[in-house]
Amino acid sequence: MKILVPIKRVVDFNIKVRPKADGSGMDLDNVKMAINPFDEIAMEEAVRLKEQGKASEVIAVSCGTTLSQETLRTALALGADRAVLIESSEELQPLAVAKLLKALVDIEQPDLVILGKQAIDDDCNQTGQMLAALLDRPQGTYASKLAVDGEQLLVTREVDGGLETLRLALPAIITADLRLNEPRYVTLPNIMKAKKKPIQILTPAELNIDITPRLRTLKVSEPPVRPAGVKVPDVATLVAKLKHEAKVI
Ligand code: AMP
Q1: 144 lines ligand 1 (CB under 6 A)
Q2: What's this model's pTM, rounded to 2 decimal places?
Q3: Does the Cβ of 129 fall within 6 Å of ligand 1?
Q4: Can you say whether the dihedral through the CA atoms of 147, 149, 153, 158 is positive or negative?
Q5: What domains lie within the chain, and their CATH numbers?
């Protein structure tokens, strides 16, 4: 079984980002970037399937600028066998990414694509679902458990109010949720080994994909500042405040 894992380069989750002064977008100058955390979980799951002898090859793919090669090196150090960069300096929205991934799936024919459930920069939560629709393949989103059963896949999904288990026919599309696994740390020997693994570079034009954005960002602004809390002297004042001042938001 061949597994494709799409990896997005995003702002490191520890960094607090700010909008640009003119509100045209986020200020990302000199900001630390990292592999999208859900994609790290997706990669870990693919590598575990390979270690269990259920997968034969794990391919990482990223769509973005040449800097995404650094993120792909991390994916290779986590255990991917090889990587593909679909290089573009244009803004890539989820539909464009899904189309690029579909083009690569058409070439590579993976049995399984494991994406993150969402990218923590745009929080779109769309790419996996769009890819499944474009490919007309079964999808298991928000996966918290995965088991290969012959030509089928048992996927436990985190849904509102509980868990749902689906049986999907391969080839299929999965999106990884937080509890699917705990990714391993990248070790120095694996970083060294990753340097020797190949990264193939393709372009949207070579794949014949139109990546023109469909959405335009009108304005990005900070959320409104919350008023400071107050301390009340006694229960009676609290009850009075709840009665007369508290509002349902
Ligand atoms: P999103 O729909 O933007 O929240 O992203 C969901 C998932 O799609 C991510 O966790 C990645 O697995 C994949 N993805 C999104 N953007 C890219 C990209 N530029 N390159 C590779 N994979 C991506």
Answers
A1: no
A2: 0.91
A3: no
A4: negative
A5: 2-217 (3.40.50.620)
